[in-house]
Amino acid sequence: MIYSTGNFVAAQPPLERATSVLVWMELCAGPRGPRVSGAGYVPLQMEFEGADPSLTLPRPGMGGRAEAGRALLARLIPGHDLTQATDCRRPGRVPSSPRTPGAIIDR
């Protein structure tokens, strides 16, 4: 179930309210109707430095708050973080498929 992220968009600073996800879900036709063939998420976090809040994609090495937000999501939704599969900063590497989080193919 994917539910409202009202606290997230309302710019509330506590970690649990400032951390959210962008959900990826693939639905396919099945013999008895639609079925989920893959699912995952990319972590999102509101930052409150400066004059205005900003949306970030918390990545490894971005500091304590980003790591705490990623750890919170890993605890709540284990095994579905697509961060590594969507990281374009690694030269010569491409994601193999969103269905396999963390799987990388060398070019």
| Radius of gyration computed on alpha carbons | 16 Å
- Secondary structure category: alpha+beta
Number of helices: 3
- The spatial strand order of the largest sheet comes to 1-2-3
Number of strands: 5
Beta fraction: 25-35%
Mean pLDDT: 76
One letter per element, helices H and strands E, the order comes to HHEEEHEE
Ends distance: 36 Å
Largest beta sheet, briefly? 3 strands, antiparallel
What would you call the shape?
Answer: elongated
Helix percent reads 10-25%
Low-pLDDT ranges: 92-107
Summarize, please.
By secondary structure, this protein is of the alpha+beta class. It has helices spanning 6-9, 15-18, 64-76, and strands at 19-30, 33-47, 54-56, 93-95, 104-106. The strands form 2 sheets. A 3-stranded antiparallel β-sheet has the order 1-2-3. A two-stranded antiparallel ribbon has the order 4-5.
3D architecture notes:
It is a single chain. Helices cover 20% and strands 34% of the residues. It contains three helices and five strands; from the N terminus they run H-H-E-E-E-H-E-E. The strands form two sheets. A three-stranded antiparallel β-sheet has the order 1-2-3.
Task: Fill in the keyword field for this structure.
single chain; alpha+beta; two-stranded antiparallel ribbon; about 20% helix; elongated
